[in-house]
Write a structure and sequence with these properties.
It is built from 4 helices and 18 strands. The protein has 230 residues and is mainly beta. The strands form 3 sheets. A 9-stranded mixed beta sheet has the order 6-3-2-1-8-7-17-18-9. A 6-stranded mixed β-barrel has the order 10-11-16-12-15-14. Strands 4-5 form a two-stranded antiparallel sheet. A hairpin with a 2-residue loop joins strand 4 and strand 5 (44-47).
Length: 230
């Protein structure tokens, strides 16, 4: 199967627009769902659950800020080689995708509950972080931002804990794939989320910012940084 889908950002949420429907892409969700039991990408119908963890399209529509019809999670994303190319507004699913030595591979951390964790550096410290396209704000445990000044308090939500506010901090990131270093904001997760992360030996969540900066490919639970040319 080789399929190209149109993708866009809505309020920093990654959305596939296919067949008149908006599908939220969430690598932070173990499961996909659609009330019909099927997500259609291109001409390919993919069977999915009709619901997941009590999350509804209506709830997602309210929080994302546009009509959402379903969600694509890691049960599908982890089973098909996928290229995410926000710069060109496309997501490519390709069973025959070619990977070469020119593709830099992110160091892997633990894989928690079917999710992908990569190893990066945050403020000079090694951090295992979950890759989460469903997170408009990235998060890091408080020890990584100790002594830094809060730059802004931002609003966010989590399906299990509802709406919350988080202090955000400017942090230095090194992807550890070569020479990709940049600055981005991280929030401090709510205590309940922090405890869950620590239980999996995870230091944070890297959200949509990584996809905004780089073309990324996911294959067999491994994240690749392919050549970044047009």
């Amino acid at each position: 199967m080789s399929t190209k889908c149109s993708i866009k950002l809505v309020n920093d949420h990654l959305i596939i627009t296919e067949n008149g429907q908006n599908i939220l892409v969430d690598t932070g969700s173990p499961k996909s769902f659609h009330p019909s039991g099927t997500i259609v990408l291109g001409e390919n119908p993919i069977p999915v659950q009709t619901n997941y963890a009590g999350v509804t399209p209506e709830y997602l529509s309210e929080k994302v800020g546009c009509e959402i019809h379903g969600m694509l999670g890691m049960d599908i994303i982890g089973s098909i080689p996928i290229l995410f190319d926000l710069k060109n507004g496309q997501m490519v699913l390709d069973d025959n995708a070619v990977y070469t030595d020119h593709f830099m591979k992110f160091p892997l951390g633990q894989i928690a509950g079917g999710l992908i964790a990569i190893t990066i550096s945050v403020n000079g410290r090694t951090a295992n972080v979950i890759l989460d396209t469903g997170a408009p704000i990235s998060y890091i445990l408080p020890s990584f931002v100790a002594g830094l000044e809060c730059v802004e308090i931002m609003n966010d939500f989590h399906p299990n804990i509802g709406d919350f506010k988080t202090k955000t901090f400017n942090c230095e990131v090194d992807t550890q794939t070569g020479h990709e270093r940049y600055s981005q904001r991280f929030g401090v997760p709510p205590q309940k989320v922090s405890k869950t992360l620590e239980g999996f030996n995870i230091d944070g969540i890297i959200g949509i910012e990584l996809f905004k900066r780089f073309k990324l490919q996911i294959r067999n639970g491994i994240v690749y940084l392919p050549p970044q040319g047009a």
